[in-house]
Amino acid sequence: MAYLEITLQVSNVNRSAAAGVYSKYKDPFLKQIKGAVSKELLIRDEDVQVLHKFATEADAYAYLKSDLFNQDVVKGLAPYLAAEPEMRIYDVV
Asked: Could you tell me the fold of the domain covering 2-91?
């Protein structure tokens, strides 16, 4: 198993719109992306995190190169971000 954690800086004003992007692409992520297991939205006062679970670390890296991520998710979130996202991949041992 592996996790992809993406931390987003989104102002309170834009959080609802950013959550809409998350909701819109959650189902396609789970159905279309190889090895996708789950996707969760974690909200804190200081940031928003999207936690993706994959069957393998290779699946997580492949998702970052996919059209769904680059053409849909990234472009959909871009207007709502206050800074570049932080991305980390964790391998579960």
From this structure: Alpha-Beta Plaits (3.30.70)
Phi, psi of 50 (to 5 degrees): -115, 120
Domain boundaries, the chain: 2-91
Q: pLDDT tens per residue, the chain (93 residues)?
A: 999 999 999 999 999 999 999 999 999 999 999 999 999 999 999 999 999 999 999 999 999 999 999 999 999 999 999 999 999 999 998
Q: How far apart are CA 70 and CA 1, in angstroms?
A: 23
Continuous H helices in 1-93: 15-32, 57-64, 67, 74-77
